[in-house]
User: Which sequence fits this backbone?
């Protein structure tokens, strides 16, 4: 089952377990139950389906608003470099086809469920889904609990980057450095070494930001919160509008975005949705074979 909510202090131990479970040596050595009347997968389970299970195990399920508020409070007080990531349908598809991405998700200190697609998938896998913790809503709330903290903002491009930085400054944090999301990793590492921000917000999209976040955490020797924000900077910079509240409450924001960006998002939401469903079936088969 997905990991229920627990204090952040114990998340490091859970991440270590997830990474160890992800290890190819570990997945290769797991015994597989032979097919029987009660366990008869329709096809041989591929390696990716097996390796996706530790990623799902790393999810932190937040069950109600009180737990969500408590999580925000704990994330605002990191005691070491920590990564916050969000797993949605698109992220699942990328991780399924990329071992580096699977490991990056498994190495996140806090991995949260984002979106209705993953909610339905977790229910199909008989796992708890909890409340939706999408980054577009949660990240501004989190930044609002950290007034005066220094923040580095990396992602998107001007003019939206500048507008996003202004919006973040209005929430309370101090923007000490920013750069578009298209430079070499070395530039971001140097900016972080120079400015030593207490928060790093990455808005580069998947998988770039997750892979960079792992590099940044290894290079940082002080408490810092690294947030993988996806399109958050584009929303804060008003490049793309949020769906009306009524559409959000209907859990149809994905459709609103698809209508607004059909060329970019058709493959992700429609074609990717079919692939996602098939991969959930394969992941379920892997769970059955593992016993």
Assistant:
């Amino acid at each position: 089952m997905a990991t229920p909510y627990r204090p952040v202090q114990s998340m490091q131990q859970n991440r270590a377990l997830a990474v160890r479970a992800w290890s190819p040596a570990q997945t290769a050595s797991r015994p597989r139950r032979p097919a029987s009347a009660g366990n008869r997968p329709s096809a041989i389970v591929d390696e990716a389906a097996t390796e996706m299970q530790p990623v799902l195990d790393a999810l932190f399920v937040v069950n109600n608003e009180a737990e969500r508020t408590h999580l925000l409070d704990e994330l605002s007080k990191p005691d070491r470099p920590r990564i916050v990531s969000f797993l949605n349908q698109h992220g699942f598809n990328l991780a399924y086809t990329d071992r580096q991405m699977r490991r990056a998700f498994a190495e996140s200190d806090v991995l949260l469920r984002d979106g209705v697609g993953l909610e339905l998938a977790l229910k199909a896998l008989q796992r708890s889904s909890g409340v939706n913790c999408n980054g577009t809503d949660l990240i501004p709330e989190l930044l609002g609990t950290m007034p005066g903290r220094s923040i580095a903002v990396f992602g998107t491009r001007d003019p939206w980057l500048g507008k996003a930085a202004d919006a973040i400054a209005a929430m309370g944090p101090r923007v000490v450095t920013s750069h578009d999301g298209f430079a070499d990793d070395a530039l971001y590492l140097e900016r972080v070494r120079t400015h030593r921000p207490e928060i790093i917000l990455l808005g580069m999209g998947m998988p770039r930001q997750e892979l960079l976040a792992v590099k940044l955490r290894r290079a940082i020797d002080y408490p810092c919160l690294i947030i993988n924000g996806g399109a958050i900077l584009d929303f804060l910079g008003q490049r793309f509008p949020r769906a009306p509240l009524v559409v959000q409450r209907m859990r149809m924001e994905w459709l609103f975005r698809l209508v607004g960006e059909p060329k970019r998002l058709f493959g992700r939401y429609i074609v990717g949705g079919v692939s996602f469903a098939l991969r959930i079936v394969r992941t379920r088969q892997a769970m059955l074979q593992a016993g």
